[in-house]
Amino acid sequence: APDIPISERDLLSKVRAEMDRTSAHPRQVLVKGDQDVDYGKVMQAMVLLQKAGVTEMGLITKQPEKTA
Known about the structure:
Strand content: 5-15%
Shape: globular
Distance between the termini: 36 Å
Structural class: alpha+beta
Mean pLDDT: 83
């Protein structure tokens, strides 16, 4: 679940298992964080994803709301 924290080791393990399971079909991983997430935390997550074997990743961004 997205609201439950996960340890770095568990994240690596789960992502590695998923990448191994789907190795015949390369996958892109998208990282999403809300505006309150520290940029350093996002970068840490992306480094962990690379260590787990993810070669294609991107960031999901939200368009700013227009003000009148």
